[in-house]
Amino acid sequence: MSSNISASENTGDRRHTGGPPTTGEASASTSPDGAAAQAPARAVPRIPKQAVGTGPSWTPGRPPRRSRLAVAAALRLEALAAGRSGLPTDAVVVRTGMGPERASRANQAVRAAKPDAVAVVGLGGGLAPGVRPGDVIVASEVRTGDGTVTGRCPSAPLLAGELRRAGLTVHIGPIVSVPRLAVGTARAELAATGAIAVDMESAYLSPSAAGKPFAVVRVIVDTAAEPLGRIDLARRGVSGLRTLRRLGGPLGAWAAAVGQRRVLLAEPRAFCAGVERAIEVVERALELHGAPVYVRKQIVHNTHVVNDLASRGAVFVDELDEVPPGATVVFSAHGVAPAVHVEAAGRNLDVIDATCPLVEKVHAEARRFTARGDTVLLIGHAGHEEVDGTLGEAPGRITLVESAEDVPSLQVEDPERVTYLMQTTLAVDEAEEVVDALKARFPAIVGPGSADICYATSNRQNAVRRVASEADLVLVVGSENSANSRRLAEVARRDGVASHLVESVDEVRLEWLAGADTIGISAGASAPPSLVHELADALAGLGATTVATRSIGTESIAFTLPKEVRRPQGG
Which among 386, 393, 490, 507 is annotated as catalytic? Predict the structure, then answer.
C-alpha cells in the first residue's frame, strides 16, 4: 500500500529533461484553486538501404529500476482516495494542505520522498465549454493567476490516453491556480485566459518535481454552468472522490514508463509528394469554388487530414449519388475506375482528379497490358480503394492476388501471356514473396517496366528497418485504414522488434514504453509530420531524452497539380 505523508507534519545535447521548466517557487501571495469544493512525376531513384544514420551512440546512464512516484493531494479526503486508488506499493502520497501558501511549503515534503516522478491529484473547477462535473482534466501546463507558467506537463497526452482507456472522460489543457475559490466574474475572467480548469495548489506544487516528470490530474466537481450548491456538495464531492480512486492504475503505468531513453526518428517519414499534392488540390478547390467542395472517399487515408479539411468546408462522400448535380467533386489520391468518371459526367459534376501520378502509372499499365491481350495479375489487398480502381480498368481481365497462397489456384487463359502489377503501398518483401511464387508458377510472366511500389513506400520501409535495428520498440504514426502505415509496423515486427500503429500520441499505451530504452518513430506517407513531433515531445516528458535521426536520405520529388487548380503563372 502507498505511504502517506502530511506536509504539515513534515516540516542535456538536444536533451529533454521531462519535467517542468520552473520559475522557482511562486510567492505565496500570488495564487491556486477555484473548485467550489477544491511537374508530372519525375523518375526518382530509391534511396539505398545502407545509408548511415546521424544520431549519436547511446549508452544508458544508469541501470533500469522501478520509478518512485510521489502523489500530492491538498485535502485529507483527496489523499485518502489517492492512497486507495491502486497506486504502486512504493508510491508516496503527500497531503499538502489547501491553498498556495500550504502548497508552496509542501514542496519540501514532496522532494524529501526522493521521487522519480510527481503527480498532483484532487478535485477542481471547470472553466472551458464542454467540461462537465465528473470529467477529468490532465494539465498541459500549470499557471498562476497572473499568467506565469510554473510547470509544463509534456507527457499529458500519454497519461490522458491511459485514463480514457480506463473509461474516463478526459480533457487536456492548462490549469490555473488561484488563492481563493473562483466564482462568478472571477471564473469567467480565468476562462478567458484559455485555462480549462482551476484549482488552488497545482502551480505552486510544480517546483517539487525539480525537473522530473510532472503530471496534474483534476476531477471536475463544478463549472460555471453547473455550480456547486449545498444540495450537490456531498453528492458531487463523493462522486469526485470515487473518480480519484480510479486514477491509481493509469498513474502507476505513467510512473512505470518514466526513465531516460533515446528516441530515433526514421527519415524519410510522414507526408509524401502524392499526399501533399492531394491535400493541396482540395485546399485550392476550396479557394477557387468556396465551400462545399465534395470529395469522393477520403482524400488520403488519415483521419486528422480528413477532419481538418472537413472543418474548412470539404464534404467527404462514399459515392457520387451523394453529390448534388453540377457540384465540384475531387477524386481521392487512390484513384478511381473509369466507370466512376462516366458516372460523374452523367451527373454533370465538375471533376478534379487528385489521383497520385504513381497510382495513375499502374492504371496506365493495366490498360496497356490488357489491351495487348495479357492476363493481368494484380498483387494487392481486397477492398483497398487503389485496388478497386485498378481492377476497374479492365473488369474480368485483371485478377487480384493477395498472397503467395493464392498462386497455386490461379487459372489464366494463356500462361505465355501473363503480366503482374502491384498496389503501390505494399510491403516490399511481402510483394517479392508473391512475385517469386508467380514466377515459379508462370515462368513467362513479366512485370512492369519500373517498380509499382512507390518510392515513398519503399523509402519509409527501409528507414523503419534502420531504426528497428537499434530500437526496443517502434511506434508508427498513421491511421488504421492506411495500407502503407500498417506495412511499416509489419516491417518492424518482421525484423523482430515490437511495433505498434497509432493514430496519434494518445493511442500509445504506457505499458509498451516500460523498459523500452530506445524507441524508434516513423509515420505513414499519409500522416502529418506534426503528429510525429507531438509524440516525440510527449515521450520526452517521461524523462531525460536524447532525440536523434536515422536517415537513409531525403526526398525531393514534387508533382504538378491538376490543371483545374493551378494558379496562373505570376499569380
Answer: 386
